[in-house]
Design goal:
single chain; 131 residues; mainly beta; seven-stranded mixed β-sheet; three-stranded antiparallel β-sheet; 2 helices; 10% helix
Protein backbone atom coordinates (compact mmCIF):
# COMPACT_ATOMS: atom_id res chain seq x y z
CA UNK A 1 0.00 0.00 0.00
CA UNK A 2 1.08 3.57 -0.68
CA UNK A 3 0.49 6.56 1.56
CA UNK A 4 -0.09 10.15 0.57
CA UNK A 5 -1.29 13.42 1.97
CA UNK A 6 -2.04 17.03 1.29
CA UNK A 7 0.55 19.70 2.07
CA UNK A 8 -0.90 20.55 5.51
CA UNK A 9 -1.56 16.89 6.45
CA UNK A 10 -5.30 17.49 6.97
CA UNK A 11 -6.11 14.78 4.44
CA UNK A 12 -4.31 11.46 4.20
CA UNK A 13 -4.81 8.67 1.70
CA UNK A 14 -3.85 5.04 1.39
CA UNK A 15 -3.99 3.28 -1.97
CA UNK A 16 -2.67 0.12 -3.63
CA UNK A 17 0.75 0.12 -5.23
CA UNK A 18 -0.67 -1.62 -8.31
CA UNK A 19 -2.68 0.67 -10.58
CA UNK A 20 -4.87 0.15 -13.62
CA UNK A 21 -3.11 2.98 -15.46
CA UNK A 22 -0.90 5.97 -14.79
CA UNK A 23 -0.46 9.04 -16.93
CA UNK A 24 0.73 12.58 -17.25
CA UNK A 25 -2.18 14.75 -18.38
CA UNK A 26 -1.77 18.03 -20.26
CA UNK A 27 -5.46 18.95 -20.57
CA UNK A 28 -6.60 22.51 -20.05
CA UNK A 29 -8.69 21.54 -17.00
CA UNK A 30 -5.74 19.88 -15.21
CA UNK A 31 -3.46 22.78 -16.11
CA UNK A 32 -5.81 25.51 -14.91
CA UNK A 33 -6.85 23.70 -11.74
CA UNK A 34 -3.27 22.88 -10.73
CA UNK A 35 -1.45 25.94 -12.06
CA UNK A 36 1.10 23.51 -13.52
CA UNK A 37 1.74 22.47 -17.14
CA UNK A 38 0.78 18.85 -16.39
CA UNK A 39 -0.58 16.59 -13.67
CA UNK A 40 0.39 12.95 -13.04
CA UNK A 41 -2.52 10.60 -12.27
CA UNK A 42 -2.87 6.98 -11.11
CA UNK A 43 -6.14 5.18 -11.87
CA UNK A 44 -7.25 2.79 -9.13
CA UNK A 45 -10.46 1.13 -8.00
CA UNK A 46 -12.27 3.64 -5.78
CA UNK A 47 -13.02 0.94 -3.21
CA UNK A 48 -9.28 0.40 -2.64
CA UNK A 49 -8.56 4.01 -1.61
CA UNK A 50 -8.85 4.95 2.05
CA UNK A 51 -9.23 8.67 2.80
CA UNK A 52 -8.83 10.30 6.22
CA UNK A 53 -10.19 13.85 6.37
CA UNK A 54 -12.79 15.51 4.16
CA UNK A 55 -11.68 16.80 0.75
CA UNK A 56 -13.52 19.69 -0.85
CA UNK A 57 -15.10 18.75 -4.17
CA UNK A 58 -15.16 21.08 -7.17
CA UNK A 59 -17.25 20.32 -10.27
CA UNK A 60 -14.58 21.27 -12.79
CA UNK A 61 -16.26 20.22 -16.02
CA UNK A 62 -19.37 18.47 -17.23
CA UNK A 63 -19.36 15.38 -15.05
CA UNK A 64 -15.83 15.99 -13.77
CA UNK A 65 -15.20 16.31 -10.04
CA UNK A 66 -11.85 17.36 -8.57
CA UNK A 67 -11.19 16.87 -4.87
CA UNK A 68 -8.66 18.94 -2.96
CA UNK A 69 -7.78 20.00 0.56
CA UNK A 70 -9.91 22.99 1.54
CA UNK A 71 -7.19 24.19 3.92
CA UNK A 72 -4.00 24.11 1.84
CA UNK A 73 -5.40 23.64 -1.68
CA UNK A 74 -3.51 20.44 -2.57
CA UNK A 75 -5.25 18.66 -5.45
CA UNK A 76 -5.80 14.99 -4.66
CA UNK A 77 -8.47 13.16 -6.69
CA UNK A 78 -10.45 13.24 -9.92
CA UNK A 79 -13.54 11.37 -11.00
CA UNK A 80 -16.16 11.64 -13.73
CA UNK A 81 -19.17 9.63 -14.87
CA UNK A 82 -17.12 7.13 -16.89
CA UNK A 83 -14.64 6.48 -14.08
CA UNK A 84 -17.49 6.15 -11.55
CA UNK A 85 -19.27 3.71 -13.84
CA UNK A 86 -16.13 1.56 -13.88
CA UNK A 87 -15.70 1.93 -10.08
CA UNK A 88 -12.42 3.78 -10.64
CA UNK A 89 -10.92 7.10 -9.58
CA UNK A 90 -7.74 9.06 -10.27
CA UNK A 91 -5.24 9.89 -7.53
CA UNK A 92 -2.54 12.53 -7.99
CA UNK A 93 0.79 10.73 -8.03
CA UNK A 94 2.64 13.80 -6.71
CA UNK A 95 0.54 13.72 -3.51
CA UNK A 96 2.04 10.35 -2.58
CA UNK A 97 4.75 10.21 0.06
CA UNK A 98 6.82 8.36 -2.57
CA UNK A 99 5.77 9.72 -5.97
CA UNK A 100 8.49 7.58 -7.59
CA UNK A 101 6.48 4.47 -6.66
CA UNK A 102 4.17 4.97 -9.64
CA UNK A 103 5.89 6.21 -12.78
CA UNK A 104 3.54 7.44 -15.51
CA UNK A 105 2.96 4.88 -18.28
CA UNK A 106 1.75 7.39 -20.86
CA UNK A 107 1.11 11.02 -21.74
CA UNK A 108 -2.50 12.02 -22.48
CA UNK A 109 -4.21 15.08 -23.94
CA UNK A 110 -1.00 16.08 -25.71
CA UNK A 111 -3.08 18.14 -28.15
CA UNK A 112 -3.53 20.61 -25.26
CA UNK A 113 0.09 20.49 -24.07
CA UNK A 114 1.79 23.85 -23.58
CA UNK A 115 4.22 24.04 -26.52
CA UNK A 116 7.31 24.74 -24.39
CA UNK A 117 6.82 21.44 -22.56
CA UNK A 118 7.85 19.62 -25.75
CA UNK A 119 11.44 20.74 -25.19
CA UNK A 120 11.57 21.10 -21.38
CA UNK A 121 14.20 18.35 -21.14
CA UNK A 122 16.55 20.56 -23.19
CA UNK A 123 16.58 23.37 -20.60
CA UNK A 124 19.56 23.79 -18.25
CA UNK A 125 19.00 21.67 -15.12
CA UNK A 126 20.11 22.38 -11.54
CA UNK A 127 19.77 20.06 -8.52
CA UNK A 128 18.73 23.09 -6.44
CA UNK A 129 17.72 26.64 -7.30
CA UNK A 130 20.86 28.31 -8.72
CA UNK A 131 22.46 30.97 -6.53
Amino acid sequence: MLLGRCHCNSIQLEMPDQVAASSVCYCDDCRKQSGAPMVAWAMVPEATVSITGKPTVYNSSEGGRRSFCGSCGTGLFFSNALLAQMGMMQVRIAALDDPNAIPPQMQVQTAERVKWMESADELPAFERFPG
